[in-house]
Amino acid sequence: MAIILEELKRPMKLDSIRGKEGEAAKAYFAVLDNLITTQSEDFPFNGRNRRPPLDRVNALLSFVYTLLCHDVCSALEGVGLDPQVGFLHRERPGRPSLALDLMEELRPLMADRLVISLINRRQVSPGGFIVRESGGVTMDDETRRVVLGAYQKRKQEEIRHPFLDEKVSMGLLPQCQALIMARFLRGDLPEYPPMRWR
């Protein structure tokens, strides 16, 4: 990851930047399995897949990413930005490219950690998933309720925002970052400070 970040400091074309983002995502997801410390046999993770998700972890990730995407779209619209017009994600009809761009910095904290915690704390179980004939994996209604409740609870947790230097609930992070992005685009900030956390 450090090498990729260093390479991104050089000027490069947008497609090259997208390629580096893809490399970073692959490296990130390659180690995510190591964080599953309980139920690892029932929740194996061999990388990201979707449409449809082919395992329980990807089913959880896809669902929580969808929830986060809705929150980010609302936040962007709330500050007058069009979620469909992004920087890095390619624009396609119906695709919220800017929301997907902004989600990149929020996913590890708001979504990935939640999914890992749900598994490690045994709040979800292998029996709460359905394997379809197509091979796709979905959650049953009870598991979906558990995940929704945990997501709402997660949004109430407070963290110190690194740029604002004040405590905010995680549920406000999309609004904070959308507002910061709008200020940057209007020229009120010299650069966009992404959400960085430890």
TrEMBL record:
Membrane-spanning segments: none
A biological-process GO annotation: defense response to virus
Protein name per its UniProtKB record: CRISP-associated protein Cas1
One MF annotation (Gene Ontology) recorded for this entry: DNA binding
Organism for this UniProt entry: Dethiosulfovibrio salsuginis
Cross-referenced Pfam families: Cas_Cas1
UniProt subunit comment: Homodimer, forms a heterotetramer with a Cas2 homodimer.
Coiled coil: none
UniProt keyword Transmembrane, yes or no: no
